Every structure is written in C-alpha cells, then in structure tokens.
Amino acid sequence: MKRLFVALLPVCLLLGACVGSEDKKFEKDFVNLTDAVPDAILEIRYYGTYNFVGARIDGYQQPVALLTAQAAQALKAVSDDVMSQGYRLKIYDAYRPQCGVDHFVRWAADIPDTSMKQYFYPDLDKSVLFDQEYIMAKSGHTRGSTVDLTLFDMNTEKEVDMGGTFDWFGPESHPDFCGNPVTGEYTGDNGKSPKGRSITPEQFENRMILRRAMLAHGFKPLDSEWWHFTLADEPFKDTYFNHPVCQLGGWK
Q1: In angstroms, what CA-CA distances link 226 with 25, 44, 60, 164, 229?
Q2: Phi, psi (5° rounding) for residue 50?
Q3: Residue 28: per-residue pLDDT
Q4: How far is it, in rounded angstroms, from Cα 156 to Cα 206?
Q5: Residue ranges of domains in the chain
Q6: Which among 21, 46, 67, 178 could disulfide-bond with 71, CB atoms 3.0 to 4.6 Å apart, if both were Cys?
Q7: In whole angstroms, how large is the CA radius of gyration of the chain?
Q8: What DSSP assignment string belongs to 190-247?
C-alpha cells in the first residue's frame, strides 16, 4: 500500500480541480492521521460509494485521513485511552475539502436522486435536508480538526455496536437519544424517533465510551451526531481548506 501511495502522490499534487489557495499552510500544518495514530483503522466512506450520495465524493483522491497536527496528537491520546480498554479507533472521515462539501450541496439539490435513501435517510423526504441542516454549505471538517469515528473491539474483532450507522440522518444519531450524555444515564426515551426506533442500554453505553474518551482528550461533541468530534482548541477556526485528500509527505 505504501508503494501505491508513493506512486500516486505526484498525480495527487498535480490535480488542480480541488486545490485552494492555502496549500502551503496545509502542507505545513496537516499530517496523515495514521502517521500520528498508527493503530487507527481507516474506512474512508467518501472515497468509496457506500455513503449517502452513493458515489465517490469530489476531492477524495486516496483512501486516507488527514488532520491538523494538533488534532492528530490529541487523537493519539484518545487512541491510547481506548486501547487500554480493549478498543481501537475506526475512522470514517477527517479533513474534508470544500469541493467535497460542495458535492454534498449539489447532491442535496438534486431531489430525484434518492438511490441511498433506504440506508441513510429512510424517514426523511430529501427536500428537507437543507432546512434541517443535515446538509450545509460549510463544514467544520474543512477546517481540519474534526473527525468522524467509532470503536473497534479487539476481542471480537468487530466494529462496536452503536445502535445506528454512521451518517444516519435522524434523531437516532443524536448523543442524547435514549439517554443523557452528560451523566451517561440510559433513559430509554426514544420519543424523538419518527418510527419508534430505539437503542439498548449497551448500545448507548458504547456511544458513551467513545464520547468520554474524546472529551477527556480535548475534543468537543456535536449534538446531532454521536460519531462527530472537533478539537476544542482547533488551530484554524476560520479557514476552510480545499486541498485534496491524499497522502502527505509524512508526520512532521
């Protein structure tokens, strides 16, 4: 795989359709996530076709994950924490170029395209995705210190059951679904689920294991997605990068 990355790197850097004006800053301040967190498992959903769009997303030129150096260092502490509990981190997405976000926006505006509806938004009409802010013109991912992730159980060698899939559009993805994420108490309250879906106490606790580890090492959660966390002290609060997702030169 390393040989493949080396071979593709010149192509990645030469392709200009998804490259912005902040490239020098990007190359200086961003790292390959797996250089910093070698135990992380990557399943970069937007490089493949199993995602809510149903196609590879613009700007995802290689199945790698990039983060700011600060976020990557904090995530290494999270990884060490969960590994001591018998888990590894599994990464779905990290830095996301603005052209990728623009791809989401174009897809959301194409109302007839519902090929992945049954997997990611069966309870919603696609026309509400903008109004309910499932799709937005800007994303914290584009600032480089946000990561979407879950846990992988080293004993069972399976992804931990969180009671819902990554990128599910609905209240079932909220951290407070069926419980209180502040106290970690399971309540079973699923009143917000349009179809009466629920999660078990074990599934809620699995979400809390991930959440506790992320918060303990400097990340803040999102109130609508159990898998989404941003470094609280992110270095680029107002910069939205457009560099493609491809292997960088190495850990700096």
Answers
A1: 30, 17, 23, 9, 8
A2: -85, 80
A3: 87
A4: 14
A5: 2-231
A6: 67
A7: 18
A8: -TT-TT-----HHHHHHHHHHHHHHHHTTEEEETTEEEEEEETT-S-TT------B--
Tokens 């079973």, residue? Answer: 188
Residue 228 bridge partners (DSSP): 148
pLDDT tens sequence across 69-96: 999 999 999 999 999 999 999 999 999 9
Task: State the Cα–Cα distance between residues 67 and 76, nearest whole angstrom.
Answer: 12
CATH code of the region 2-231: 3.30.1380.10
Alpha carbon distance 146, 75 (integer Å): 10
Residue at token pair 């194409």 = 110
Q: Is the pLDDT of residue 16 over 80?
A: no
Please write the tens of the pLDDT for every residue from 242-251.
999 999 975 4
pTM score of the predicted model: 0.90
What does residue 32 show for φ and ψ, rounded to 5 degrees?
-70, 125
How far apart are the C-alpha atoms of 7 and 2, rounded to whole Å?
9
Would you call 90 helix, strand, or coil by DSSP?
A: strand
| Assigned token pair, 248 | 């960088």
Q: How far apart are CA 112 and CA 92, in angstroms?
A: 26
